[in-house]
Structures are given as C-alpha cells and as structure tokens.
Request: fold
Amino acid sequence: MAAKSKPARTTHSSVVARRMRSFMATASFTLFVLMILTAYLSPFGYMVVTGFKHKDVIAEPTAPLWPAVESTFTYEGKKYEIFLVPTEDGEVHKWAMFKKGREESLFLDPENLEAGPIQWTGRWRTLKRDWHFSINWGNFTRAWRELRMPLLLRNTVAIAGLGAIGTVLSCIAVAYGFSRFRIPGKTAIFTILVGTIILPSFVTLVPTYTLFYRIGWVGTWLPLIVPHFFANAYNVFLLRQFFMTIPRELDEAAMIDGAGPLRTLISVILPQSIPVVIAVGVGHFLWAWNDYFTPLIYLLSERDLQPIAIGIQSYNSLYGTEPHLIQASSMLGLLLPVIVFFVAQRFFLRGIVFTGVEK
Amino acid sequence: MSTIFSEFSLKNLRFRRAEKMSALAKNEARWGLLFLSPWIIGFLLWTFLPMLASLVFSFTNYDLLHPDETRLIGLDNYVQFFNDPLVRTSSLVSLRFALIALPVGIAQPIVMAALLNSRHLLGKRFFVTLFYMPYIVPLVSAVYIWQGMMNTRLGWLNLALGAVGIEGPDWLNSTTWIYPALIIIGLWGVGDMLLYHLAAMQGIPTELYEAARVDGAGWLASFRHITLPMITPVIFYNLVLSFIGIFQYFIIPFVLTGGTGRPGDTTKFYAMQLYKEAFGYRHMGYAATMAWMLFVAVMLVTVVLFSTAKYWVYYAGGEER
Reply:
C-alpha cells in the first residue's frame, strides 16, 4: 500500500510543478507581450495627453506628463502661485507665495489663513510649483471649428460611403461570376486580376489624371468614387473565397425552382454572406477615410469638398508650432475610424484572416 | 483550397484551345461574363488603357499647361531621364531606404505573429485586435502623432530614452536618424500583413510540431524548420508587395516634410519626385516616362523574385483547386 502510494504522490506533485511552471511561463510571457503592446500604442497616450493640454504648459520642462496647470490661490482678489515648500520637520506644504525674496520668502497657507504670512528661509527658485490635473477641452472645440469639422465629416462620409456602395456591389457581382460560372479563360482572367495587386498605381496615375482633367472631373468627388464601381482584386478575392464555401446544392435547388442567376445571387448567396459583405464595405469605408493621395491630387484646391485627411494636413501646416492643436486635430481625424473598427472588428478581422486561411 | 498567396504565381496563365460549347454552356458563360464585366471594363478603363496611354505620353512633351504644343519627341524623355540628376538622387534615396526598410518590413510581421501565436499567450484576441488597430488610423494623423512623439525635447521617445540615461537624437532633422524615424512610423502599418502571417501560422498542422518535439527539437529549431518554411508563401507575398510599396513610398515623407525632401535630400524619394513632375510642374510626358521606368523596375524585381520562388517558397498540399 505504502509502496504504491509513494510514486503516485510524486507524480501528483510533479504534475503540480509542471502546471505551476506552465502558469508562470504563461503569466510572464503575457506580461512581456503586454509591455510590447503598451510601447506600441504609447503614441496614442501622447496624442490624448497632449491634445488635452493647455498651450502655455506644453513647452514647460517642469510640467508633468499629464494635462495639468500650475495651481494658484486667490486671496482678496489677487492670485498667488502655489509652491511645494519643504520645512524642517520634513513635510512638504502646498503654500502660496505671498512675497518673494532672494534668501527669504513669505508664504500663505491656504488651509490655515489665520496663521498669516509664514516666513521661510531658502532660495525660492529651488522650489517646485504645484500642478493639478486640468483638461483643456478648448483645443478640441477650437480645432473642430477651425477645421470646419461638420463640412469635412460630410465630405468624408459621402466619399467613403458612396465608394463603399460601389465596391460592395461590383465586387459581389464579379466574385459571383468567378465562383459559380464556367467561363472560357476564367483561370487566366483570375490570374490577371490577382496580378493587378502588384501593379504600381503610379503607372496608371498620369493618364488617369489627364483623363479626369480633360473631362472636367478634377476638383469634384467623381474620381474618388466612380472607379470603385469597377471592383478590385482584394475584395473580389475575399468574396470569391467565401462564395466558394457555400454549397452549390443550394443554388441548384433555387435554379430548379425557376430562379435565374441574379435571383440566386440575391436570395441564396447573399443572405449567407452578410459578415463578409460587411467586412468589404467597412474595409472600403476605412480605406477611403484614410486615403490621402487621391484627394491630394484631385481636391487640393477645393477647400469645400476636401475630406478629413487633407483638411487636417492643411490645418496642421498652419499650426506647426502648436502641438496641442495638432494632436487634438489628429484625434478628431482618427476617432470615427477607431470607433467603427472596434464596433465592426468581429466581421473585419475574420474577413481579412479569411483571405489567408487554408480551408 | 487556395489562398491569395498560393494564387500569387504565374502557373495559371496558360490558354487552352476553346472547346466547342453546348448552348447551355454558352448561356452559362454569357451570364458569367456579365457578372465579370464590371471588373473587365474597369481593368480596361483604369488599368490597361492608362498603361498604354502612359507609354504613348512618355514619347511626347505633353504638358497640361500647354496642351496645344504637344508633339512626339521620340526618346527625348528617356534621354533626359537617364541624365536627370534629380532622378539619380531620388532613385538612390529610395534604394538606400529600401536597404533598411525591407528587412524590417519582412521581419516585423513574422516576429509579431510568432509572439501572438505562442501557446503561452493569454487573451490572444485582445492582443491581435490592439496590435492591428493602428493600421486603421489615418496616415495623416499617425504621422502627426509620431512627429510629436519624436520631438527632441518634449517627445515621449526621447523622454523614455532619457529615463534610461540615453540622450535621444533629433530624429526628424538628422540625416542619420531620419530613416530609423520613418521606419518607426511605418511599424504601425503592419496590420493586414500581421493577420496574414498569423493565419498562416495557425494553419500549420500541429502534428508537425509534435513530431519535432518527439525528435527533441527546441522552440528555436521548430520555428526555424517548421514555422518559417510553412509560411514562406506569405513571406513571399509580403516581400513582393513591400518592394512595390517602397518604390511608391510617398505619403509619410510627404506629410512629414511637406514635400521638401529635408533633412538634406534624405527624403527625396522617387515617388516624391514623380509627384512633383506630374502635379507640380504638370510635365505629364516626362512624368509618364518616370512612371514607366518605375513599372519596368518593379517588373524586373518581380520577375527575379518570382523566379527565385521555386527555391524557397513552399506551397503545402500542391496546387489542387
């Protein structure tokens, strides 16, 4: 009995030890990745903190990292600066500077005014100011107004939204064609489609711009919207991969019931593809929201039609020395895409991973 | 089934002789072509014809400001191209940058995906979402955020370096540090590539790792001999796209420097020069020449890369479709 239970106990304790080791490995590795993530995302922290700062503390080397202002104390209608004053008993007091002196200064204790001015010996220049947390919303209201955010939002949403509609409609049609129909030369056409991914867009840029220039589309939204009604390789690929997982028996059943190809697409394929269609639509919306180059060449001189990316850039070229306004405007620019991303990330990440996953 | 990476080869570009089709098959093909037509028309309209036009432009002195004076000038643009000091400078700038940016662009998604794929990581979804997130931030915002981060005195980057006793450089105004700075800004662009790499790693059959463990392989050996070879299609895809991306590298330096090319000429990238010719001076003929030479360079690199693929890119499961 005893001889039997002994090895059992060591096995048990070695299992515990292994579990413990594995737990430690998991905990320390996760912590390590968390630290990398924190560093990776720290610029967002910088943006938020700077965007909320007051202008005059931005360049102040003694100011804390977070949005803060120097504390003051108002007494009998006059403002006094609050300092951190160490005394001989080892305490640090938040006292208001009443009268400055080279070697000796007079302070008021805001919590104990009856004590009157307190004499403190030492050089006041060695003292640190007291800071308290204070958010400056004014940066945002000012950037919002001066950027003309409502106008920029309208423009961006219109351009991105219309383009998304075009992308979704055209890519669904093309992907359906690739996934369900026998067409002579289909494989070759598909390879050319995938090949366009590596085509440098600069090659087609000059004639395309010239065309739009000649037909009077430069300075309008049309060059930013119309081309998206002609499908693109990434999204066609994504949708085709998904359509191919839908059993053909379902189409055939619909066909037997008398449905034509279009009817089959609308009533059989699409209802099962909502997540991936959302992924394509949201993907285009975010892409267009972030697109900088196309509006740069087509809308640079049209201030009333520009989307947000261009608006922020021209705004910031005016305020190069005011980091709080620049960061506030950067934040205005990324707020909506980030919200959309977090709301739709379920569809979005799955949709992208889908392109790469072997099934 | 296939992935975008396994489609990324020329194997399918062969044309079979058309077989005689039944009426039913003809009908099906007609419907199919109807559905493909948006892309086919779009390809002709926005890709094929512009490429031809671009080639034609490159033999003219076409200038948007003086369209009436347009005439054929033979190879003049190409002669000018090869003697243009600005072209030479900007090509060298792009190549020099590529030397640093490419290795980082290839390694970063591999390393990050390997971290996120580890069985020791808790809360994978949380990490994947947040590591992906900067990818959807508008580049304009991202550039301004990083510009602030890299401020010599007040940026958090140098504050952090200062905290560990290193005096941080003047990232954006030093000819030495501008490329590292651009690459740091580019780290946020990993997004899709990270997911592709991660998906490829998750698709590796676990039996391979178990067999390696039985054979006594450690973590590094498994990574080197299983993970890396199995994800070569994705690495290859990334390599090709990174090359093309670097030839066209434009927005980050343009927003950062306002197109000045500072510090020194370090950010006078090829695409920036092309942009200036086309939309600054409106020299459409010459810009088309620059664009075509870019295309030729990209094609050459792509052909070389594709021809090396058979030595190192491993497509698991053959090519069945």
Summary: Residues 23-57 of chain B form the longest helix (35 residues). The two ends of chain B are 6 Å apart (CA to CA). Chain B touches chain A through 109 residues (CB under 8 Å).
